[in-house]
């Protein structure tokens, strides 16, 4: 047991019940409560995940108020595409240093939810569609942050894969899919990096809000995985504070002015919440504060060094999707740079992760600086950087600039208003203005390279036409210079896709039920997410999972697979057979040709990143433990390995398999038979079987309750009357004076979709939960007298 924990237990044993109840909720937006006479300090937590967002004024949590400058590292989508845990650990350590220098005890990240659908508004904040990649990257980030004596926070646990009605929607998912896809990443990160904290998500999981879900918060997280830190709520995620404490959620964040204290005290008096449970939560809060205090100290931050690291990381996550040899660019002639992003880069996403960067590189400046007088660079904006819209006069400029240049580089992608925390994308297309600019450039000059800045996949019906396509994602504050590094070949493009780019969203089984119903989302595709779907169904992605080119080429030879411990070790020699140095990601997939349980065509179970000079070789060994071969057996509630043949595939993407071996697994157990959705989207019958229960009927908008939303209120006359003042009350809790239009859009979506309890909790006491209950009774016409009584 940690020293701090033993000390915390002792401190808590001497506290009054009132103090304990006070401690298990935050003090304000970003700090915890203190009890000075008992030696319990208050600590500061801040977002996260790719930069330190320590607010200077105001107390909101949605990115509205300015924060102190901090290095804006590439967002998780970019870091994930590096497939480089060592590099991510380095970035984590830099984040840890900056946190420490700013007196931040816990940095609220990494986020590691699975990208179930490419339209997820917050996908840019997450690593991958694959749990193995997500878990490994998150673990690396946590190790880095915590190496500096600052706590990390894994978020958002669990099954929070869309923004639409994120505070109340019920994720209906079968147990096997939940374990194999949506929990495994968290499990890897917990086991491999020992995070100080975990954040529970907003949504419900199979009918129960995450905060009150004991099976997730205690049985799985602590008992099965051995998590020994603190669980905090996402901001205003509390659905029932007393039950959350019983479930194992220790700290309510932010502070809600004691909104729940009376209910918690009552639950304690009645015995519903035991003293042991309350003490446990309070002990974990004190333990966290003591841990932070123990590790507190100053930290030297070198902003220039962190900027250089951000630049390196952005290039490492940049994915070269296609290339006819035009890249790396020759340093000569005339280069037309087209697209407003070249001067006003898209480099991070809106919402709680918004960082105030210490500096901001632009592509055009970096390109000009690197080229000097060797080549001439012209520029045409093409579109409005905020809206993405174009007009004929801008397109004429594009055509003119493209026609008279030797080569054209178009920067396109998604404007900030297209993807954000708080709402999902409605489609996967580029803004029409961007498409028009790309088309105009291509028509004027075939030697056109497209460089994309966006946080999640876009449809590219024109993908065959450009000379090259570079996916730069959201590269952070040094994204512009990193892109120039890659395009000029000063740095090899290091990225490989950690997500599939579909031809069209409608190809995807998850598209049938994504962000459609405010109350419920049904994961009828089961395990068929991302490449698990594309490769099983034979529906090609535009660019497959794991894909990414280099300026050189790699050969894989001498694959051997040997029994090693309880698993296998896979050895392969990688040789750089091209003319330049570069990096590659060797990917190991497992395929079970015959199983009682349905299985996707292949699943990633190991990978390694190698950096090789021209002509160099390296022998790599990648270990597969027993779990690599296991399925979650729902009946026995354990991971089981079925005896029989298993194929081990080694490749450069999920569709570029270079070598395979079959191994015979002798020892194992029978797994319970299970069927997936035959046509990749479960029918009612199939879904019932997968769930092992009836498919829940989504709640209707009435009768109203604490979890009802403003949108629900619109369904009755009385509700409509109440909606206006409630919206106003909600608005009051945020200061939007310095907010941009995207953030305001997110905030308005959040407000409409917020449960009424959130409006009460964030109202600074203007609307207590008790008063809210009375209002609800009135709106339901069940109790006018209850209202009059007050
Ligand atoms: C987000 C979290 C974030 C928190 C605090 C929430 O809206 O979901 O990721 O850490 O706010 O800003």
From TrEMBL:
Protein name (Swiss-Prot/TrEMBL): Exo-alpha-(1->6)-L-arabinopyranosidase
SMART domains named among the record's database cross-references: Fn3_like (SM01217)
Domain of life: Bacteria
GO BP, sorted A to Z: carbohydrate metabolic process
Keyword Magnesium: no
Taxonomic lineage: Bacteria, Bacillati, Actinomycetota, Actinomycetes, Micrococcales
Known role: Catalyzes the hydrolysis of a non-reducing terminal alpha-L-arabinopyranosidic linkage in ginsenoside Rb2 (alpha-L-arabinopyranosyl-(1->6)-alpha-D-glucopyranosyl) to release alpha-D-glucopyranosyl (Rd). It is not able to hydrolyze alpha-L-arabinofuranosyl-(1->6)-alpha-D-glucopyranosyl (Rc).
Family assignment from sequence similarity: Belongs to the glycosyl hydrolase 3 family.
Source species of the chain: Demequina lignilytica
InterPro entries registered for this protein in UniProt: Cellulose_deg_GH3, Fn3-like, GH, Glyco_hydro_3_C, Glyco_hydro_3_C_sf, Glyco_hydro_3_N, Glyco_hydro_3_N_sf, Ig-like_fold
Residues in Fibronectin type III-like domain copies: 584-654
PANTHER family: BETA-GLUCOSIDASE
Presence of the UniProt keyword Hydrolase in the record: yes
GO molecular function: beta-glucosidase activity
Keywords: Hydrolase
């Amino acid at each position: 047991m940690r020293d701090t924990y033993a000390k915390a237990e002792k401190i808590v044993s001497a506290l009054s019940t009132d103090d304990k109840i006070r401690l298990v909720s935050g003090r304000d937006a970003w700090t915890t409560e203190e009890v000075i006479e008992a030696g319990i300090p208050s600590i500061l937590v801040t977002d996260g995940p790719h930069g330190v967002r320590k607010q200077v004024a105001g107390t909101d949590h949605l990115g509205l108020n300015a924060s102190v400058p901090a290095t804006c590292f590439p967002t998780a989508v970019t870091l994930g595409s590096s497939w480089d845990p060592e590099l991510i650990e380095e970035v984590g350590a830099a984040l840890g240093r900056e946190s420490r220098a700013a007196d931040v005890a816990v940095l609220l990240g990494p986020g590691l939810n699975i990208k179930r659908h490419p339209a997820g508004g917050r996908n840019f904040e997450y690593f991958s569609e694959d749990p193995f990649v997500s878990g490994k990257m998150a673990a690396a980030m946590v190790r880095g942050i915590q190496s500096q004596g600052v706590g990390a926070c894994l978020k958002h646990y669990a099954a929070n894969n869309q923004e639409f009605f994120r505070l109340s929607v019920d994720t209906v998912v079968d147990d096997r899919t939940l374990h194999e896809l949506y929990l495994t990443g968290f499990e890897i990160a917990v086991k491999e990096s020992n995070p100080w904290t975990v954040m529970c998500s907003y949504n419900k999981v199979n009918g129960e809000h995450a905060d009150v879900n004991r099976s997730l918060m205690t049985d799985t997280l602590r008992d099965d995985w051995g998590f020994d830190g603190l669980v905090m709520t996402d901001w205003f995620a509390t659905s029932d504070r007393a039950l959350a404490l019983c479930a194992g959620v220790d700290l309510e964040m932010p502070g809600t002015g004691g909104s729940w204290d009376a209910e918690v005290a009552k639950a304690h008096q009645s015995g519903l919440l035991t003293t042991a449970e309350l003490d446990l939560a309070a002990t974990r809060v004190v333990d966290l504060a003591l841990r932070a205090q123990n590790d507190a100290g100053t930290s030297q931050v070198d902003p220039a060094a962190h900027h250089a690291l951000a630049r390196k990381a952005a290039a490492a996550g940049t994915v070269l999707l296609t290339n006819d040899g035009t890249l790396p660019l020759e340093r000569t002639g005339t280069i037309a740079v087209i697209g407003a992003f070249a001067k006003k880069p898209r480099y991070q996403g809106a919402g709680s992760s918004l960082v105030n960067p210490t500096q901001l590189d632009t592509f055009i400046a970096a390109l000009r600086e690197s080229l000097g007088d060797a080549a001439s660079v012209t520029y045409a904006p093409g579109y409005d950087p905020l809206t993405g819209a174009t007009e004929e006069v801008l397109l004429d400029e594009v055509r003119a600039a493209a026609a008279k240049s030797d080569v054209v580089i178009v920067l396109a992608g998604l404007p900030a208003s297209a993807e954000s925390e708080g709402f999902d994308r409605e489609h996967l297309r580029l803004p029409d203005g961007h498409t028009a600019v790309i088309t105009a450039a291509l028509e004027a000059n075939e030697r056109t390279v497209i460089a994309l800045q966006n946080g999640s996949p876009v449809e590219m019906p024109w993908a065959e036409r450009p000379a090259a396509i570079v996916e730069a994602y959201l590269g952070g504050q040094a994204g512009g210079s990193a892109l120039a590094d890659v395009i000029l070949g000063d740095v090899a493009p290091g990225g490989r896709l950690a997500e599939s780019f579909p031809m069209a969203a409608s190809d995807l089984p998850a598209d049938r039920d994504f962000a459609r119903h405010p109350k419920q989302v049904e994961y009828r595709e089961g395990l068929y997410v991302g490449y698990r779907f594309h490769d099983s169904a034979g529906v090609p992605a535009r660019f497959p999972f794991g894909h990414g080119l280099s300026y050189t080429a790699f050969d894989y030879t001498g694959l051997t697979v040997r029994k090693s411990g309880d698993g296998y070790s896979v050895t392969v020699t990688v040789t750089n057979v091209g003319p330049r140095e570069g990096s590659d990601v060797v990917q190991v997939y497992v395929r079970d040709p015959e199983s009682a349980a349905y299985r996707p065509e292949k699943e990633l179970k190991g990978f390694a990143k190698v950096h090789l000079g021209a002509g160099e070789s390296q022998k790599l060994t990648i270990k597969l433990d027993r779990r690599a071969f296991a399925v979650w057996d729902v009946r026995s509630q354990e991971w089981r390995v079925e005896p029989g043949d298993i194929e081990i595939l080694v490749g450069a993407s999920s569709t570029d398999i270079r070598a395979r071996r079959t191994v015979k697994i002798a020892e194992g157990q029978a797994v319970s038979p299970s069927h997936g959705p035959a046509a990749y989207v479960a029918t009612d019958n199939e879904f019932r079987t997968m769930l092992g229960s009836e498919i829940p009927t989504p709640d209707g908008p009435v009768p109203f309750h604490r979890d009802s939303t403003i949108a629900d209120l619109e369904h009755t006359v009385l509700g409509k009357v109440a909606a206006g003042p409630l919206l106003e009350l909600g608005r009051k809790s945020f200061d939007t004076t310095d907010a941009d239009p995207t953030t305001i859009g997110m905030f308005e979506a959040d407000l409409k979709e917020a449960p009424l309890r959130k409006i009460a909790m964030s109202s600074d006491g203007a609307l207590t939960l008790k008063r809210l209950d009375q209002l609800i009774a009135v709106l339901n016409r069940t109790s006018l007298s209850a209202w009059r009584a007050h």
